[in-house]
Design brief:
This protein starts with a strand and ends with a helix. The strands form two sheets. Strands 3-4-5 form a three-stranded antiparallel beta sheet. The N terminus is likely disordered. The chain is α+β, with helices and mostly antiparallel strands and 105 residues long. The protein contains two helices and five strands.
């Protein structure tokens, strides 16, 4: 059984990963190699040609004065156009979340 999903006119509810991207006719999404990981830290920088986002985990829950240790797990490199589309998607997702659950502080 294949993990490919045909997105056009699918009656099934999309997974959270598939819900992140709008369905486009004729596109199949293969989730067989999809991995999920929790991240609570993100940093980024950019050049003229790319935007780089680094994601990681801060496991130092004790907010004492000692230096914090953050493990970076993923680096995502995007074109400026893809970064702008990500910004638009994240803005919509946060707006929808706040409409359902209240303002994020």
């Amino acid at each position: 059984m294949s993990n490919e999903k045909d997105t056009p006119n699918s009656a099934a509810q999309p997974s959270s990963a598939a819900a992140a991207a709008p369905a486009q006719p004729g596109i199949k999404v293969d989730t067989s190699a999809l991995k999920s990981s929790y991240c609570n830290v993100v940093s980024g920088n950019s050049t003229r040609e790319e935007v780089v986002l680094s994601f990681g985990v801060n496991q130092d829950w004790d907010m004492g004065p000692q230096p914090r240790e953050i493990q970076l797990h993923h680096r995502i490199i995007l074109s400026p156009g893809a970064a702008k589309r990500l910004l638009e998607l994240m803005t919509k997702l946060v707006h929808d979340h706040e409409a359902r659950h209240g303002e994020i502080r």
